[in-house]
Amino acid sequence: MYKDLYKRANDSIPTDDAKKRVMLRLAKAEKRNGIPAVRIGQFAALAACLVFTVAALNIYNDFEKEQNKDKGLVYIHQQELEKTGTEQTNPVGTSGIGEEKIETQTTVSENAPRAVTQSATKEATPKPSKEACKTRTGADINIAQEEAAQMTEPQAEASTAPAFKEPIACDVQDIDKEASPIVANTPAKAAIVVNEITEFQEAVPAAFNVDRSIGRIEEVTISEYYEYIGKDVAASAKLPDGFSSTTQDMALFEVGDDGKYKGDEWCFVFENEEKSVEIVTTKNTDAVKACIDNEAYKKSTVCEDEAVVFGENDFYKAYMISKDVGYTVESIGLLETELSELLISLAE
Amino acid sequence: MEKALPKTRNFKNEICEKYFDMIYKLALSQTKDQGHAEDVTSDVFLKFLSSSKDFESEEHIKAWLLRVTINCSKNVFSSTWFKKTVPLEETLLAEVPEEESEVYAKVLKLPQKYRAVIHLFYYEEFSVAQIAKYLELNESTVRTHLQRGRSLLKTSLEGEDELV
Predict the structure, then answer these.
(1) Cα A276 to Cα A330: distance, rounded to the nearest angstrom
(2) B102-132: b or e for each residue (b if 16 or more CB lie within 10 Å)?
(3) Which residues of B touch A204 (CB under 8 A)?
(4) Least confident among A37-51, A54-68, A320-334, B1-15
(5) CA proximity to A100, closest of A108, A91, A109
(6) Per the CB < 8 Å rule, is B53 touching A200?
(7) Which percentage of chain A shows pLDDT scores above 70?
(8) A150: closest CA among A45, A58, A247?
(9) Are β-strands A194-196 and A305-312 bridged in parallel, bridged antiparallel, or unpaired?
(10) Which of A242, A230, A240, A246 is nearest to A281 (CA)?
(11) Cα B46 to Cα B68: distance, rounded to the nearest angstrom
(12) What does the DSSP 8-state code read for residue A313?
């Protein structure tokens, strides 16, 4: 009865006007955002103009400095440009910052005015180092370094565009605690690295190769299930205050000829007014393991177990195997630290 | 192995036309607001039109569209603006005949995740297995959501209990 009422209710909602508006919006967006070949060429031309403008500004700045500032300071800056200009194929460092720095400065050095002549010898290092600046004042060194940093900052940001969520670093060891207070508060037993969720992401089932054919049906209570997987999930799961369990306390499992359950996933549900957590457990860990072993995903560690965590806004999905039980944890509204504590409590 | 479906503009526009109602009504059940539902639907189809993904079949497209709709609807809820405003459910319910509006209103009051499953199961008449595939959930999760959603709906319609 409710089904029919709900169907009729939905059928009665008109969609024609909404459809017209949405289709019009799509047509406008298509017209506005289309990037035919001609426009790509125009964009490339615009980018070239911007590069030329930046280069020209750098030349002007150099010329101004030459006129208005300490000549020794200007010489050091130009000296660095000349050095990097000869090393186009040999970047200063392995980071993106070094490479971008060279690209910009190469252009500048080729056109830099050579009017300034100094008797100081050229130094070997391309970067403004303390050794090269020994005879200069401390203030001069700071100004030079700041100017070098200013030249490279925009490129540095572009070159280090992360594929994964910032500020948490890609490698567990490289997590920058200063940039992310959340990481600083994470319990030491876990190091969570969050992968971004994309709509192109492949779905990860709870279990592979599950035989869903109808076999002998057995009623399994939640207590029996805890014995089966070796863990009282509800009692172990550490959640913030205010959560209550709405997990079913009984399930019907199909039993194969070998006496084993076919499809042994159990979904534990915890929720409060605004947040929810679902934990699916299974002893068929192949699917979760395949996700954890996928090299495309950055790994987290939870009590020496490996895990993979995806996150977007206040939604997290975590995959973990602990003591031969696969866990798929989905949360809405939890903080990352709360998710971390939950995963630790499941793994302990 | 099936060939990937065409990526021509005409084909994609046909898909948008064909699945508009399904996506719009799912978005409506999630956002409870016609304006937001239109925004979500536009976002979903814009992503589809600009996507370079190889879809193996129309089922694959349908699953992708449904998943993206749920995700986009979640983004509406998490926006700061949304948190400060109240969805105009009354406007939406005004479109629905009185006999059905009570059930519809109670479904709208269910938690979002139950609403999605209830809507896809009861209105789109997908099976549990299909819903699990479309929403990237386990079948047991879908069954739990259905069971819980139905239980809450029943309690709400037969009693005067407040839904969570």
Answers:
(1) 8
(2) ebbbbbbbbbbbbbbbbbbbbbbebebebbb
(3) 136
(4) A37-51
(5) A91
(6) yes
(7) 53
(8) A58
(9) parallel
(10) A230
(11) 11
(12) T
Tokens at residue A122, please? 């050229």
pLDDT in tens, A116-127: 333 334 444 444
CB A282 within 8 A of CB A207: yes
Average pLDDT over residues A319-335: 91
Interface mutation target, options A267, A269, A283, A327, chain B, most CBs of B under 10 Å: A267
**Beta carbons of B103 and A276 less than 8 Å apart:** no
- The DSSP-derived string for A179-246 is T-HHHHHS-TTEE--EEEP-TTPPP--S-SS---S--EEEEEEHHHHHHHHTS-HHHH----TT-EE-
Give the integer Cα–Cα distance in Å for B120 and A7.
11
Q: Is the pLDDT of residue A344 over 60?
A: yes
Q: What is the CA radius of gyration of chain A?
A: 30
Lowest mean pLDDT among A146-160, A220-234, B37-51, B135-149: A146-160
Asked whether the beta carbons of A152 and A104 are under 8 A apart, the reply is yes
pTM of the model: 0.46
Give helix A96-111 / helix A71-85 axis angle, nearest 10°. Answer: 110
Between A190 and B89, the more confident residue is: A190
- Give the nearest partner residue to A15 out of B21, B113, B141, using CB atoms: B21
Chain A residues whose beta carbon lies within 8 Å of the beta carbon of residue B138 = 205-206, 265, 267, 280, 328
ipTM > 0.95 (yes/no): no
Quick one: closest CA in A to B142, which residue? A267
Owner of token pair 């393991």: A289
In this predicted structure, the answer to whether residue A173 has a pLDDT above a threshold of 60 is no
